[in-house]
Amino acid sequence: MIIGGDKRLVVANIKQAVQNEQWHLKVEVDDPVLSPAAQSALIEAYLQRLDGPTYRTANWVANQVATSMTAVLNRTTTFHGLENLAGIGASIITSNHFNPLENSVIRAAMRRTGRRHLAIVSETTNLAMTGPVGFLMRYADTIPIATEPEYMGRLFPKLLQQELEQQRQILIYPEQEMWFNYRKPRPPKRGPYYYAARFNVPIVSCFVSMTDLGRPDNDQFNQIHYTGNVLSPIYPDHSLSVRENSQRMMAIDWQQKKVAYEQAYGEAYTPTWQSQDIVGWRG
CB under 8 Å, gap of 24 or more: what pairs does 251-259 form? Predict the structure, then answer.
């Protein structure tokens, strides 16, 4: 499913970012920009909702809607490696980020193995969205990430810890920004691995690949088939420091995702730009 309008400038931005090796650059053109004050207000409202009397009910409704959407969006999705989730409880999931709805693939994989809750770390700007999508962003187990030092230093880790103490999974995108329908994994940032090492939980390494079905979805893209690949889990090494562990886990995950790409697409991973890197693009 294609979310958003004209993607020509987005694709051009991705191409330029690849050529400049700016792997975590924002390429979307219509994302809102929040002032520090507006960001702080959204975070404060989010924290107040968590403690409010109606949150539990709204959270239940949002998760029911997310579950139904997941079933519909992934009725034909293929999964590989679900056996790698055996015995995994509290964990941090990493995956490639290329579509606003591709997290439903991860949610579907978790539900197929009996896991009912998936927290997703998301940009604070998503809390400002309106309508049904905005409701899901505010209530469907979303944990906002921000630039506000007090929140990131004290409250954000506490929110992660609360989820992990309930033996839940948290999806954190190590690529940071979404690159629409970009098929290659991008070098990860260290954040997810730092928290996995800090809280002594494994990384559930995932890679979602795409197949162009050759049927138009809109005037720029063809329809896409998703394949969710659950790779080998990566456990902390108790003999290492948090920093050493995070660097080690990040390196292993990066290597696994490159191998998964090569197996999915039948070609060696190269960081150089190729027009076919935007799957389904007809523009």
Answer: 252/205, 253/94, 253/174, 253/188, 253/193, 253/203, 253/205, 254/185, 254/187, 254/188, 256/205, 256/207, 256/231, 256/232, 257/96, 257/185, 257/205, 257/207, 257/231, 258/185
Given the DSSP bridges, would you call strands 222-230 and 203-216 parallel, antiparallel or unpaired? antiparallel
**Pairing relation of β-strands 91-94 and 78-80?**
unpaired
Question: According to the model, what pLDDT value does residue 116 have?
Answer: 86
What are the angstrom distances between the C-alpha of 200 and each of 114, 121, 173?
22, 18, 19
pLDDT attached to residue 190: 96
Residue ranges per structural domain of the chain: 8-277
Domain 8-277: state its class.
Answer: alpha beta
Tell me: the pLDDT tens digits for 147-178? 888 899 999 999 999 999 999 999 999 999 99
The whole-model pTM stands at: 0.94
The residue type found at 227 is: T
